[in-house]
Amino acid sequence: MKKFLLLLLFTTTHFHAQIKSGEITYGLTLGYDEKLSNDDRFSSIFEKAQNGAKKIAFTLFFNNEVSLFKVNDIITDKEISLAKAFTGGNNIYYTEINSDKKMKEINSSGYGKFIINYTKKIDWVILNETKYINTYLCYKATTETTVVNSKGTFKFPVTAWFCPSIPFNYGPYGYDGLPGLILELTERYTTYGALKINLSKERDVIEKPNKGKTVTQEEFNEIIKTQPTF
């Protein structure tokens, strides 16, 4: 495993000087979920959300200092609104390279707009499994995420496929910390998969999110505990 990580580090260092910024477009897939798909109250709603997810795309903007992940503008219908509700699709995620400090802009009709500054170190397990995504060789990594809502605290598995030849430790939905950019990410029933990859030798400027009331993650967790959830 040490030799494997050293190889990834060498690959990242070799290409780092060439790429200064980029944009990755991701499609969204809502897969099967045993609880939601078999629940009489939510199964039809979840099916509509699955249809809506096929109409949505996200973009990860990044340079050699920061990244920003957000949904692309689209005319919204009921299915799209449901897909966003199940995935937090209106949220914006902002991360700094090689830092545990993160920021997200929450935008929900349920509880309003907030800016959350938080610190999160993701403990990845890198596996010696590979596959190609858009001609890029990617490696598999796993971790887990903790979700807090009105029904309690839950843990779900996360799988990422990252590309060492795109030498930035960013990814969709606020995930980062791997020796290469994440081109596919699955969290519970949600998958973000790269559709289009644009890389540049020029450095693009990326602005921080700035709309909403600033709160800590702990304060926001208390707010959403009082809100209904799927």
From TrEMBL:
On the tree of life, the source organism's domain of life is Bacteria
What Pfam families does the annotation carry? Porph_ging
NCBIfam families assigned to the protein according to its UniProt record, in alphabetical order: GLPGLI
Specify the protein name.
Answer: GLPGLI family protein
